[in-house]
Peptidase A2 domain-containing protein
Amino acid sequence: MTIFPYQRNSTGDSFPVVDLFVSKGNHIARIFALIDSGATVSVFKEEVAKQLGIDIEKGKVIHLGGVGGHIKGYQHEVKIEVAGKKFVCPMVFSREYLVSFNLLGREDVFENFRIIFEEKNNLLILE
């Protein structure tokens, strides 16, 4: 079991954010991502792809839609290490994704954990 205190943004709002390692080939990056139960796929900013040496346009073209509108991205398989578990996950990288947090969505992430959002105490628990 790993407990992550929610992180606050510049306006004082709290979010269930985890730190994790993402790797592709010989490249590894330590990043932060929001655990998002409303997102089907994981979506990361272009700069993460650059840190991993990924040419994003060589991935599978994906069009995503949600509350914030529609974006075009490129899906790549990457390795993730979070809360002591390692697994491969499809990740969409997009130049059009401009929000403050990278997102870890449900696909291939949520099945690896029992996830508890403890809003009352601003804690995220991954078991």
The two ends are 4 Å apart (CA to CA). Residues 33 and 102 are 5 Å apart (CA to CA).
